Amino acid sequence: MRPGLAGFSLVFSMVLFGLPASNFLDLGFFGWSGFLLSRSTFSGSSDGFRSPTIEDSVSWGAPNCGVSPSLSDAEISVRDESLQLSINPFLKPKVHFNAMSAKALKWQGNRVYDFAVSFGLLNTPKADVSYVANPEALVLNLIRVDEDGRAREAVVEWILNPWSSDYGRVKIRTPTGEKLVGSIEPDTSWHRIRVVGDWRTNNYLRIDVDGSSILLREQLLFETKPWSNSFDIYVELGNAWNNCQHTFAVSALYDNIEIFYR
After folding, report:
1. Of 85, 124, 153, 224, which one has the greatest count of Cβ atoms within 10 A?
2. Strand boundaries in 49-190, DSSP class E
3. Domain shared by 8 and 69, yes or no
4. Are the beta carbons of 234 and 140 closer than 8 angstroms?
5. Which of 244 and 59 is assigned the larger pLDDT?
6. Are 140 and 192 within one domain?
7. 177 & 219 share domain
8. Residue 229 belongs to what domain range?
């Protein structure tokens, strides 16, 4: 039998018995990730990841502590051939914010996209207000903004605030809220998350968390942005909420960032 016919026969059998064969094809059921769009490994440079932008927690409803972060309160650098994102490296008191760095990608049209990121913390969080290295969450985001400013996003977050009941949980963001998809015990080991989404149907298809996979059918997150016609992969990190009293500064490493399409 010629290569490819075995897969065709299996798909035909799945259709015959009422199974959704297209789902298995889109999910790379036969081990095919698709066409490589981008791979970043950071040997000596940030490989197109831009200087970080910041989002003050006041903008999403947190109390105003009277101190605002500035662009100098977030940095990207290359450390041990990985991309390092650092929040509040100069220990400004009371600031609470997210910082994000993005790399522009070439939009291939509405199709299935698959992105995978390896990441690790430099310090393990602790439920101790005197311990500086406490994060809020680590976020990965593949976002397409259309010509009209409508954004369709595949967003996954690892919740790292040690005082949160969701500590260590991994969730995706959808138009109706967050959905639990797994968990990772917070530590300083390397971890890897892979997300597959369909920008034709605007649905998540699959997520792999350290090799454990689940199938999804939730909608991608929809938002409106003040810019248009872009396609980017984002890495994002936030420091823990400080109750307007404490100082938290955190760093994370990212590596082997891959985006495929099919």
Report:
1. 85
2. 53-56, 74-79, 82-87, 97-104, 112-121, 135-145, 150-159, 169-174, 177-183
3. no
4. yes
5. 244
6. yes
7. yes
8. 34-261
